[in-house]
């Protein structure tokens, strides 16, 4: 974790302009679930080192957006490129791409039959053909970093939700991804465990990880995000830096949404 | 009526039993391999494989086994495929038929594991095959074993269909012995039944035991 003594990486955004080159680019992306038009002409560019928070009402397509980026969902039209390359179709090529994009799920989805350590070594050994001893060393370093190294030999079911989610983050980080996707990573957690996960995520953001985070945690957005993307009914309605978005949203739909979540 | 009629014909019984056991073991092993492959097809990312797997299981599973034997014996030769009569025809038909049930049992075990596990496996870059072998099947195995034992029990009983196709397994043996000793038909057939039950009852008990264990582990 980057502590206060670490050297800050170069600023990601200067004068409201991202300094990194585009890493994730969605261009005119459309997707349907049957008759439901879940993504409607979505355009989104995430630059290297940028942290983008996606926010919006339930059913607006946030999860779907996230899942199309590593092709857990296919799209009907448009293109998605990662680091300049279009997403490959099914096969080995796609598997390699997925290793480059870490994904953290709301429900953790740790491999239930494997220990914490094995959860973090599996991808390295199988997908990257790293030697098991080397994979273990890497895994322990990352588990240390997210603060669960002392749980390495336990099964996921023996851990608290917050610990499980931190292991899930470690599992994704072990693949040395270029970007990380988080789909409501704290929504399934008891309130007292939310911060331990958010702290890990803020640390990642400070270290310069490119992140797309679906979350309603405004604290996180304010602390770590460079940009907030507001979605409603399958459309990207508004994009702004967090301060602007939360204090002076432009669109009526965003104002309406914020008034609802702020009164709760 | 005389119990000695069973003892006297023990060599014939044993020969029949050996053949029944052989049909069960060889077809069972073949059905496990093919059924596993078909189950993998049914959850694969390729639509064409999924469709093939679905047609394969639904066709075989929903036809009477006897009809499959008739197809193999009467229809395949018209297409130039002549199976050696008897033993190997029986093995092939029993394997094909049983593999559809194996595929179905394995598939429902895979579905019980939960989509989240498969998505997480894919998300860290495992290929379809790797997700299946390292993440999905190891978790499915616990819930799949009891239904698979029941599939094998059904197979053991189904081998008797081969009796109608020149394979002298247990039931065909019983029929022969009954024709030779018309006075002892009941006893001779009870003898046949005992040989089946010797295998099927313990196997059924084992399936029940494992099923309870899986239920406890939940
Ligand atoms: N596999 C699917 N099949 C059919 N419809 C789906 C599927 N997945 C999602 N949907 C529908 O697509 C819409 C968008 O879903 P999505 O999960 O992306 O929304 P979301 O913004 O993440 O919502 P939430 O805040 O509730 O997680 C919803 O109406 C949902 O019911
Ligand atoms: Mg969602």
From TrEMBL, chain A:
It is a peripheral membrane protein. Residues 24-258 form the ABC transporter domain. The lineage of its organism: Bacteria, Bacillati, Actinomycetota, Actinomycetes, Micrococcales. This is Arginine ABC transporter ATP-binding protein. GO terms for molecular function: ATP binding. Keywords: Amino-acid transport, ATP-binding, Cell membrane, Membrane, Nucleotide-binding, Transport. Belongs to the ABC transporter superfamily. The keyword Membrane applies. It is found in: Cell membrane. It comes from the Bacteria. It comes from Cellulomonas phragmiteti. Pfam families: ABC_tran. PROSITE patterns: ABC_TRANSPORTER_1, ABC_TRANSPORTER_2.
From TrEMBL, chain B:
CDD domains: TM_PBP2. The keyword Transport applies. It holds the Pfam family BPD_transp_1. The chain crosses the membrane at residues 20-41, 62-79, 185-204. It is found in: Cell membrane. InterPro entries: AA_ABC_transptr_permease_3TM, ArtM/GltK/GlnP/TcyL/YhdX-like, MetI-like, MetI-like_sf. Its main location: membrane. Keywords: Amino-acid transport, Cell membrane, Membrane, Transmembrane, Transmembrane helix, Transport. It is a multi-pass membrane protein. SUPFAM superfamilies: MetI-like. PANTHER family: AMINO-ACID ABC TRANSPORTER PERMEASE PROTEIN YHDX-RELATED, MEMBRANE COMPONENT OF AMINO ACID ABC TRANSPORTER. Belongs to the binding-protein-dependent transport system permease family. HisMQ subfamily. NCBIfam families: HEQRo_perm_3TM (TIGR01726). This is Amino acid ABC transporter permease. It comes from Cellulomonas phragmiteti.
């Amino acid at each position: 974790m980057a502590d206060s003594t670490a050297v800050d990486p170069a600023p990601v955004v200067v004068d409201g302009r991202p300094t990194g080159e585009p890493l994730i680019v969605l261009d005119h992306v459309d997707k349907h679930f049957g008759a439901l038009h879940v993504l409607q002409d979505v355009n989104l560019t995430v630059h290297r080192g940028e942290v983008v928070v996606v926010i919006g009402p339930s059913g607006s397509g946030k999860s779907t957006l996230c899942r199309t980026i590593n092709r857990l969902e296919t799209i009907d039209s448009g293109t998605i490129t990662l680091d300049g390359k279009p997403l490959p179709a099914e096969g080995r090529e796609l598997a390699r791409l997925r290793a480059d994009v870490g994904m953290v799920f709301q429900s953790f989805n740790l491999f239930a039959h494997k220990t914490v350590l094995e959860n973090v070594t599996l991808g390295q050994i199988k997908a990257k053909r790293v030697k098991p001893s080397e994979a273990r060393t890497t895994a322990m370093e990352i588990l240390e970093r997210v603060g669960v190294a002392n749980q390495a030999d336990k099964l996921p079911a023996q851990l608290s939700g917050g610990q499980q989610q931190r292991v899930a983050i470690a599992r994704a980080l072990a693949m040395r991804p270029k970007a990380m996707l988080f789909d409501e990573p704290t929504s399934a957690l008891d309130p007292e465990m939310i911060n331990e996960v958010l702290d890990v995520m803020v640390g990642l953001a400070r270290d310069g990880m490119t992140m797309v985070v679906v979350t309603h945690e405004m604290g996180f957005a304010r602390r770590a995000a460079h940009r907030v993307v507001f979605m409603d009914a399958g459309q990207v309605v508004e994009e702004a830096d967090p301060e602007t978005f939360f204090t002076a949203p432009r669109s009526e739909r965003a104002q309406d949404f914020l008034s609802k979540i702020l009164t709760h | 009526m005389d119990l000695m009629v069973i003892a006297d014909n023990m060599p014939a019984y044993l020969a029949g039993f050996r053949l029944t056991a052989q049909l069960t073991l060889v077809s069972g092993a073949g059905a496990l391999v093919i059924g596993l492959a078909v189950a993998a097809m049914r959850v694969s990312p390729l639509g064409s494989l999924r469709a093939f797997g679905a047609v394969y299981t639904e066709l075989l599973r929903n036809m009477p086994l006897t009809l499959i034997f008739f197809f193999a014996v009467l229809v395949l030769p018209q297409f130039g495929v002549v199976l050696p009569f008897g033993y190997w025809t029986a093995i092939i038909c029993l394997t094909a038929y049983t593999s559809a049930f194996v595929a179905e049992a394995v598939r429902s075990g895979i579905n019980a594991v939960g989509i989240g596990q498969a998505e997480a496996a894919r998300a860290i870059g495992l290929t379809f095959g790797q997700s299946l072998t390292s993440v999905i099947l190891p978790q499915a195995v616990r819930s799949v074993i009891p239904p698979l034992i029941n599939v094998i029990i059904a197979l053991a009983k189904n081998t008797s269909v081969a009796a109608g196709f020149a394979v002298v397994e247990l039931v065909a043996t019983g029929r022969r012995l009954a024709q030779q000793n018309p006075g002892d038909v009941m006893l001779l057939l009870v003898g046949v039944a005992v040989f089946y039950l010797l295998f099927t009852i313990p196997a059924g008990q084992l399936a029940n035991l494992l099923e309870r264990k899986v239920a406890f582990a939940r």
